[in-house]
């Protein structure tokens, strides 16, 4: 994600990308040309004239970068999940409240035209108030190896659906989940969860780190709403294009989320980052509150707890 954000920011007319920071010097090959790579966070945050940062480290390292940036009064866009633990999220909310800067959470689907259309269909009554929400994704096996021990499947992948479900139906009051451990040391590689919302709505989540690395799809997702008046479905596998070539296939190039065409990053990532950059100038509202991002992490943690204990877990409503 750091490579994509950096590539987009380097080309944006709304900002100047003055540096990238990564503890691994290997990141130099992922940094846009002529942009310096620093391996020391404090040195990076001390860059003269710095106004804003985008945090895209693994989730268990978000807090350190957010803490340093907010202490300097910077504007911060932090990748989802806000953090790997609820305790880290709480500290971030406190730091944000006492900073002259502003922290916002990057939940891409809040800028995705498919999910914006879905929310409109719910809100304007054609689908109407949800009765049932179903979300699933199959994420790359390679991600499980790379992220092992830093974040759970529910927090890394499930959090996308959890955020959309809370957006459409409000607070989640109870979860029950079962998981499958392929590698017992890194937590479940697949889980199925049922959710109960405070409003009475029910939900289901199914996620796995099971997408074969050679499949031609980097990841896929599906999302369904049964409403009072109608139903709606998003098929994240459909990208409007399938390519067969002498190299094999089919492959399904991304056309929506972060398509890279002619060296330019477009799609939802570009829309989200541009909204953030314009917000640095004019303070425009962000589509979700920090407590929404915290509640999504809390729900993911409850799923992990339910898998570990075998019993349902109650959730508190998001603090006002
Ligand atoms: N919105 C989406 O759809 C989406 C998709 C993928 C990842 N993400 C999120 O983006 C973030 C990064 O994920 P990724 O897949 O790009 O991870 P990654 O492992 O590919 O990259 C993380 C980078 O951070 C560097 N790093 C690790 N610890 C650091 C630290 N303390 N300070 C500075 N650099 C550090 C690593 O060297 C690595 O280059 C995560 O929060 C992830 O959940 C979002």
Give an overview of the whole structure.
Helices cover 34% and strands 26% of the residues. With 320 residues, the chain is α/β, with parallel strands linked by helices. The protein has a seven-stranded mixed beta sheet. Helix 7 crosses helix 9. The two termini are 31 Å apart. The mean pLDDT is 95. It binds nicotinamide-adenine-dinucleotide (NAD). Nicotinamide-adenine-dinucleotide is lined by residues 1-2, 21-24, 27, 41, 56-59, 61, 64, 79-80, 108, 146, 156.
Q: Given the C-alpha coordinates, what overall shape results?
A: globular
Measured as a percent range, the helix fraction is 25-40%
Radius of gyration in whole Å, from Cα? 20 Å
Mean pLDDT: 95
Structural class by SSE content: alpha/beta
Number of helices, where a helix is a run of at least 4 consecutive DSSP H or I residues? 9
Order of helices and strands: HEEHEHEHEHEHHEEEEEEEEEHHE
Q: Strands of the largest sheet, in order across it?
A: 11-10-6-9-8-7-16
Let me know the largest β-sheet: 7 strands, mixed
How far apart are the first and last residues' alpha carbons, in Å?
31 Å
Strand coverage percent: 25-35%
Number of strands: 16
The ligands bound in this entry are:
nicotinamide-adenine-dinucleotide
Low-confidence regions: none
């Amino acid at each position: 994600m750091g490579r994509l954000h950096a590539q987009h920011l380097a080309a944006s007319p709304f900002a100047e990308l003055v540096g990238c920071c990564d503890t691994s010097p290997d990141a130099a090959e992922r940094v846009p040309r002529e942009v310096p790579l620093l391996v020391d966070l404090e040195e990076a945050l001390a860059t003269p004239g710095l106004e804003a940062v985008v945090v895209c480290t693994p989730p268990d390292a978000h807090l350190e970068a957010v803490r340093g940036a907010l202490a300097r009064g910077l504007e911060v866009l932090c990748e989802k999940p806000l953090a790997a633990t609820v305790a880290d999220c709480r500290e971030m909310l406190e730091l944000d409240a006492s900073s002259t800067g502003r922290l916002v959470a990057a939940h891409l689907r809040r800028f995705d035209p498919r999910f914006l259309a879905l929310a409109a269909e719910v809100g304007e009554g054609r689908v109407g108030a949800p009765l049932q929400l179903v979300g699933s994704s199959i994420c790359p096996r390679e991600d499980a190896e790379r992220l092992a021990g830093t974040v759970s499947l529910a927090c890394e992948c499930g959090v996308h659906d959890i955020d959309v479900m809370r957006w459409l139906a409000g607070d989640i009051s109870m979860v029950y989940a079962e998981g499958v451990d392929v590698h017992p040391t890194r937590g479940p590689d697949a889980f199925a969860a049922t959710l109960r919302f405070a409003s009475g709505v029910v939900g289901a989540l199914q996620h796995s780190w099971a997408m074969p690395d050679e499949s031609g799809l980097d990841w896929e997702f599906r999302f369904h709403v049964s409403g009072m008046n109608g139903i709606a479905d998003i098929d994240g596998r459909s990208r409007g294009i399938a390519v067969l070539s002498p190299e094999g296939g089919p492959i399904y190039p991304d056309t929506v989320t972060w398509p890279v065409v002619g060296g330019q990053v477009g799609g939802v990532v570009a829309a989200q980052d541009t909204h953030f950059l314009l917000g640095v100038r004019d303070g425009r509202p962000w589509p979700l509150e920090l407590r929404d991002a915290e509640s999504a992490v809390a729900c993911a943690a409850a799923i992990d707890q339910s898998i570990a204990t075998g019993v349902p877990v109650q959730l508190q409503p998001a603090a006002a």
